[in-house]
């Protein structure tokens, strides 16, 4: 097995995904990761004191400065909450120029760029395709000096259930909005498993070189999530306000609202993308085709996921 990519630059370490990745890299001392957290000069983010961690500040579009930072590192992980195409493009160029083999883990978290999708969502997929094309072309042009990996995870289910009741199950207010009966199945990954998967990529550089990896923590549907929430809380029957919504009507309503410039219209479009009956748009990867085993991600039951989520309420 190839040597672990242990000298790491992490971009976006204070964000939702980046902070989970940072925690995973610091978790097991046997990996011997050394981590340079890259921040903008204006950043006020703070990080845990750790012998293996240092903070480096530089502009994200300064090619010379980035190239200098990336020297003597094995891998660059881009997990910024604002994955702007120009800065990621510059960072790929800097990684290629920095010398010695470099792995660039792209900001491809969530759904894969090539998943079937509603046309209104192309505005989000197009930048992903463009940056992936840049990474592929850079790898071809530099031979062994640059390689890339993408990680498709689906939605972050535990985070969504706590922060975004629009996903259809509002635990805090005991409400549910089931699209087309809530039976459309989707795959998702909990945040902790995203950190585990990124650590797995660094541990298995050869097997993850120049390709998209796909992981999943669970496969479920809205109805299952609601049923498990009710069972775990002991609140069956009429204790929840459950609304049934037609997926096609929701999509059309969202389209019309978005066309009028109402940003909330995109929420309805995203929900229809996930849950419309028979659309088959939301399984990021089938279990047998996933990279779970390679990257150390264990598939879970929806009961296990929901029990952990309920600890937040």
Automatic annotation (TrEMBL):
Alphabetical UniProt keywords: NADP, Oxidoreductase
Gene Ontology molecular function: oxidoreductase activity
Domain NmrA-like, first and last residues per copy: 6-235
Signal sequence, renumbered to the chain: none
KW Cytoplasm (keyword) present: no
Protein name: NmrA-like domain-containing protein
Organism: Lithohypha guttulata
Lineage: Eukaryota, Fungi, Dikarya, Ascomycota, Pezizomycotina
